[in-house]
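Researcher: We're teaching a course module on how sequence relates to structure. For the next exercise, students receive a sequence and then see the predicted structure as tokens, so they can try to spot secondary structure elements on their own. Here is the exercise chain.
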Amino acid sequence: MVYHSSFVDDEGITKACGCPLLPLKSHIKGPAPVSDQDRTDIVDEAITFFRANVFFRNFDIKSSADKLLIYLTFYINVALKRLEGCRTLAEGTKAIINLGLENVPVPGESGFPFPGLFVLPQSHQEAVLLRNYLKQIREETSGRLLSVAYRPNGTPNKWWLAFSKRKFMNIIVP
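Model: And here is the predicted structure for the students to work with:
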């Protein structure tokens, strides 16, 4: 059974292209509302559920937050693939920073991994809002992923990096 997001209540949540702009425990500047540090956010859920959800080929969407969970699961898969050859935390941090500098495609653009998951942007402002949110959430996920993919002494955690070989929903990671 697939693990679903606990963020099922959409009331009061801004959306862009059908993607909820959920609050984040983040210090990174962006359009996401700030969440309490003691509460679980969508990034925590994505990292916690990643090792179970990555085995599924199909994902039954029960809420709009599940769409974001799917996107983050795929992004974690891409990030782990980039970390695969990095033997130290410093190398891993450099690889993740380079991944963060890449262009973030939005629905309707080439390179967006899930056409049809989110609706196409109705305006340029909506596309920019979603791109900025996805960039912010990717940076936040990258930072938290480094803390679980590497041990405190800076060596790789093989129990996490082994998942870089998995394909999520049969999508081949570039």
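Model: If you want an answer key for the exercise: The first helix runs from residue 42 to 53. The CA atoms of residues 20 and 73 lie 16 Å apart.
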